[in-house]
Amino acid sequence: MIERFLPQTEFSSYEDFMQHFKVNVPEDFNFAYDVVDVYAKEDPEKEAILWTDDRGNVRHINYRELKELSDKAASYFVQLGIQRGDCVLLILKRRIEWWITMVALHKIGAVAIPATHLLTDKDIIYRCHQASVSMIVTVGDVVVLRNVIRARPYCPSLRHCVSIGPVVPQHWENYWQGVMTAPRFASQKGQNKVTDNFLLYFTSGTSGEPKMVMHDHSYPLAHILTAKYWHNVDETSLHLTVADTGWGKAVWGKFYGQMIAGATVFIYDFEGRFEPDHMLRIIEKFHVTSFCAPPTVYRFMIREDLSQYDLSHLRYCTTAGEALNPNVFAEWKEKTGIMIYESYGQTETTLVLGTYPFVEPCPGAMGVPNPQFRVDVVDNEGNHCQPGEHGRLIIRTDEGKPLGLFKEYYRQPELTASVHNHGVYFTGDIVYYDEKGYYWFVARADDVIKSSGYRIGPFEVESALMSHPAVIECAITGVPDEIRGMVVKATIVMADEYRSHDVKALIRELQEHVKRETAPYKYPRVIEFVSELPKTISGKIRRVEIREKDNEL
Fold first, then answer.
1. Concatenated DSSP letters for 344-397?
2. Are the C-beta atoms of residues 30 and 216 closer than 8 Å to each other?
3. N or C: which end of the chain has fewer CB within 10 A?
4. How far is 500 from 2, CA to CA, in rounded Å?
5. Could you read off the pLDDT of 234-271 as tens digits, one per residue?
6. Are strands 111-114 and 87-91 parallel, antiparallel or unpaired?
């Protein structure tokens, strides 16, 4: 499959990769027809998905079945009046119906909006209003159903609510009843352009209302690089990415690129909190070969006695979402023999920076550029920064929109223009690169603290604090100071075993720890202990909320 889109698939070095990697993008590319249905025709028994849940249920889906089910779902949705360009909100957790429904919507040309089950009724109303959502397809869980039912009267664009069960409310559509009785689907292959609207994500809203990030039909092809050259999957791989389908990480690691590269997508559908022992047993039982998870997951797993698990089939590990602590990298490698490869990207992009099989991992670094994006680091005047100099990370687009960059902030032209103009896309992140070419994250531009003439990135201080056993989570912000302008403040969730310690002594200990771990001027002069940090529904820390609270005092 992958050879249909890449003139060259294997690379001898990073230089070879940068020079010769290229993706052929058909003018009418549609992932559902050009990948799923092609597999179904040429290799129908090939396993597309291996799904299991925390109750021991297991389901194998080959491409013949994925095509048949997605055809039926597409036919059903057409019966309900869903057309090309209609926006459909999906709240499906890790149920197998998410993959079937996504492929079905792609076949129609409707716009899929994956969403988390943590949305409140107000969140649902906001999304329906902003995107004129025509249909919601959801799990039949009581809490999710209740929130959709509460929201429905305030969503005039919403024509249909569909439940996959087990609960189907009165006046709702029954997903499986509709799918299994739908007439034969009339293929719409070739009717879309690759530039048509395809997939929409609402960002987390760490500094304001969520933005609507619209991608076009070329987006899946951009994730060939993600899967083949970061996750390092191939036809023999069983790949597990730890992510709920409501987040962009799901399409990064559980769908497009992995299927194009020939891997089987592994899905572990569990409820409740993450349990490292359960995850390790699943990796052991099903012989997972490639694994991707946030650094937090690795931090929990290395606390287990890894010698009690057979991880011999595991070949490759990756991480993203935050920088990886070097200690976690070293301990995971020592206990498993496997290095962890990092990357950086946004909802608005695919993988921008990363470490690939032919690039030595540098723990904590985002990685190095790839051929899909022309990245640069510039100062406030747009001048190129030198190694070690903090600046704004940009993607140059003067030669055209690169494959993987979002199409627009949907219905928000002024907002789009504020970040993408004059041949440059501004990521909003402050970074630097070192003499070896590795890029390092400093902060979101809005989060930089200016104190006594220094520019301090929260991430550096947070990383230093997180290496102390007393710290479970932390957030670094700036608070006003008459002398220094701003000083560094740490808001910390303390480990249980330290709650009996003398608070003043612990504060001094943490401050001295930071001075040893990073430049002394960055240490937090103010430390506050809290039971939890304010977060978005996707789990990202809302530093803006901490700053607003401090400014009110």
1. EE-TTSSEEEE--TTS---TT--BEE-TT-EEEEE-TTSPBPPTT--EEEEEE-
2. no
3. C
4. 57
5. 999 999 999 999 989 999 999 999 999 999 999 999 99
6. parallel
Encoded amino acid at 408, one letter: E
With a cut of 60, say whether residue 29 has pLDDT above it. yes
3-state secondary structure of 258: helix
- What's the pLDDT tens digit per position in 272-284? 888 999 999 999 9
pLDDT of residue 207: 52
Residue 323 DSSP code:
P
Buried b (16+ CB within 10 A) or exposed e, 279-294: bbebbbebebbbbbbb
Give the tens place of pLDDT for each residue, 446-459.
777 878 767 787 88
**In sequence order, what are the residues at sequence separation of 6 or more whose Cβ sits closer than 8 angstroms to the Cβ of residue 504?**
none
**SS3 for 299?**
helix
pLDDT at residue 208, as a whole number: 60
Q: What pTM was computed for the model? A: 0.87
Give the C-alpha separation, 498 to 506, whole Å.
9
Q: Which residues pair with 456 in a beta bridge?
A: 449
Per-residue model confidence as pLDDT tens digits over 384-413: 999 999 999 999 999 999 999 999 999 999
Query: Beta-carbon neighbour count of residue 406 at 10 Å?
Result: 26
Q: What is the dihedral angle through the alpha carbons of 62, 68, 70, 73, rounded to the nearest 10 degrees?
A: -140
- Per-residue DSSP letters for 101-116? HHHHHHHHTPEEEE--
